[in-house]
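Appendix B. One record, verbatim.
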Amino acid sequence: MSVLLIEDTGPVRTLILNRPAARNALDGDLISALYRALREADADDAVRALVLTGSDPAFCAGVDLKQAAREGAAYFRRFDEENCVGQVALTGKPVIGAVNGAAFTGGLEIALGCDFLIASERAVFADTHVRVGVLPGGGLTARLPQLVGPGRARRMSMTGEVVDAGRAEKIGLVTEVVPHPQLRARALELAGAVAEVPAEAMRALKRIYTAGATSLIGRALAIETEIAREHGPDLDGLEERRVAVTRRNRGQLSPG
């Protein structure tokens, strides 16, 4: 089974993270597959827009902490050459994130790299980096405050609390919430509208947005990268922290 599914609908290419049993966590194979697919789509003139989503029940759980615990620093070195998280934001064509479920930590960073997000009513968001002993390194501390404001961003990162779809829309993290069965169709509809624009004009428009954002958050990105590399992941007890965070997140999602 492929860890990344690729579907073309006219000029729109959909990339589907496909490790559902692992909540689409980024193992080595998925890191490579997503990185290559983003670059290939960007170079393909037939592709005018992308939709990025996950196989149910999750969008992306971020780092595969089980693999990271086994491999240690070798796991994180993959991102030096195939940074699939950063590549989302670097893609020159519009990327629409269709968040179908949990987008946690590195998965939240992937979502933040999209041009805009729509969400299923089942979508939930959380930044649990520090709770598992890993600092953000994919642009989260630079991009999240731009969407939700610095106070809400710090609250999400410092508490690790889970934000549901309704609140995510209210604070500006997502642009629209739709019934779960309609998510993929709505994403394709929006991507189709994007793809109607002449390709050169759309690429130039994205460059304007990207350049403007870079001028505002470029220094923040550099600082995040510098400090994350200086601190390094705390690999001792990583698996135990993963289990504790998973249990805590499930508790926040439980009714009542």
